[in-house]
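Side project, low priority. Logging it here so it doesn't get lost.
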Amino acid sequence: MILPLVLLFLFLTTLHPQGLSENSGYFLRPVKTPSGIVFTDNFGSGVYTIRNGSVHKLLSAPGSGNYFTISPGGESIIAKITEPRGQKLISVSLLTGLKREITEFSETIGQGSFANQGAFANTEGNYFILRENDTDRRFRLPAYANLAPISPDGSFAVYNDQNDQLYLLELKSGSSEMITSGEKGYFYPQWSPDGRYILFSSLDAGLYIYSPSEKKEIFIARGFNPSWSSNGTEILFETREEINGVFGNSDVSIYTIASAQQLRLTATPEVSEMTPSLSSDGTLLYAVREEKAVYQARYIPSAGVTSAVRLISAEIDYIERSREELSFAPPTESMNIPYVHQVWDSPDWFNGHSACGAGTAIMLIAYWNLLPPYEGWCSWPAPGHYNYYGRYIADRYRFRQVDYQFTANDPNGKPSFGGYGYMWNGSYSPYSRMVSYYSNHGISAVREEAPTFAKAEAQISAGNPYTICNGLTTAGHIVLAHGVNAVNRTVTVNDPYGNKNTPGYPSYDGKNAVYDWPGYNNGFQNLNTVYWCVNTSYTVPAHGDTIIDDLDFNRGFYLHNRHGANMLHYRDMTQGYKGHFWYTTTRNGMNDTCYATWKPNLASDGMYEVKVYIPFSNATDAVYRVVRNGGITDVPLNQKLYSNQWVSLGVHPFKAGSSGYLRLGDKSSVTGQELVFDAAQWNLIDPVLSAGDEQGSPSLFGITANYPNPFNPSTQISFTLSESGFSRLAIYNILGGLETVLVNGQLESGRHTVEFSAGNMPSGAYFAVLQSGGRVSVHKLTLIR
């Protein structure tokens, strides 16, 4: 497994779908001490050692394996314990397992560190606390820092601020100076054993060292999980193969300070060597993910590396946080974002284990109601369920004149479309396609490399969900953040793969999962790295209760795409009312295959003129169905006659609220024409119009008068038509109820008179409504018995 130092060839390996090895657990971060080898697991849920050839768990608590410290003599570890009542540090003997409290519980306690002469330091809240000779010295920091290690000689400490920048604190004077560039976020500072350098990582997995004496920063390499060799002359770290933004197998590399040379120590395409450490006697330790094992080898700079020996391989009884424990997560304000699971809410035929980008994107799109709900049956978890956005992950659809017919194979080799096909088509990846995918749906989007926590906080606090590509899994993962806790440095996310804190991952509880920011430890799973993020914003159009646009999904507009219909039956254009309309092809048949409905929320009962917006069309037989108070009226319309204008469907009675609606389907006497769905509006006709108040010019069109008025029991209604055509004259009561239809057919242009007899109708006000050629006239009548 270990290859000679001269072998530096980079093997390209098969990239693993995220999380497939995360759920089963594996060992990480083995370190040799005088009291034995100590390590943790990939969940950071405990601290282990090897006794008599078997694994022994020293400590079991969520997050206790993250950033633990070994005492100067190597006889014990210092670890953080997080419980609902707070956080504290404890010491655990490596020989006896005896536990001893170092601090009391507090809201935020930082990891501990030692100086060579026995001084101990940690943070609590916004304070760095130095404990030496039974005396505590406190230094105020600009923000809570979980990692603030003291230098070996006890003269300095390193901490981060709210912007993830690192500062050097001089303990004698209490003064601080920033040592990072500010270009991106940084975390995990580690002093070299001789105190000459500070090793740290950028949030996007860059490795750096800083020399306090020279005030100089040096970039080493791109890598993960770095550590100093015991003599401080080398740095050990992981290098991971990367293809299209996805990380695959990892190998062990070493960087020598004196020569500034990097060498790859392993090159094994079949397994991943991780989290290496090197002791002063040349013992090289590392974990192997696929084998759930810890290996030991001998490293000699002049001769290379000997063959490795597997020390231990075992199943891990790791500790995940229960759902009850998660109820004690730090408080945070978050957004209510619809949840979509990349595996179990996407189509059954699709393997979604690599679809975190598309899964995250569709949750953001659904949050802003930018696509119509698209019902899909999902067989798992049993007994199955419906999801209304998961089909967009892999099914083909069209929106804003983009056809998502781009294809990419899922992990099973099946060609897939939708968001997944768009992001993974050819040499693309979510890194190169996420921004354009958002932009195609009308969202303003900008990608940032390794942004700081402060940027995430600002974006989310402004009400904009934040897309984070992170190291939650070794392959890389994408989640949608929508809440932050600025004190504890946690983010609340919708994780399309589930909640890594709870049993089983992937799991179906990824809505509102809480994760720790890199460098922090509140007992939650850690993002580990933040490679890149996408800032997004969207201005929600003003929505009226009486004007329903074709993009008002979940707010009055419904586009039917199930039970025989799907999104491929619809096309759209970025024209029309508010720059968008849908269209489909007319069909023969007994029933509609595709249809849309517009449902207003009306403030009062009354007579309403219903209008639809026609941008352009060639459909000559569009039949609108008006579902009104007391019945249904079908209104035929030749859409081809109109262009970029509102067209009246007549005046109809409606009750207050949302019981009435308008419907347009694709069933037609003429097939193959393009039927348009755009906006619809309801205009209240004032029920207190006086006689003679009509719409339009009475001399050309409209009801001119009725005589007598008031009347009993009959009256003559006179009206004028400006052109020949289908006409309708109806009488409605004051509540909008239809009383009778006097005219319903073809009439010539000119003046007409019709007699209306009230019969047994009671006294009161009534309305005569004339409709013809897309025009409407309303006239008030008064019956007095």
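Brief comment: The radius of gyration is 35 Å.
Revisit when time allows.
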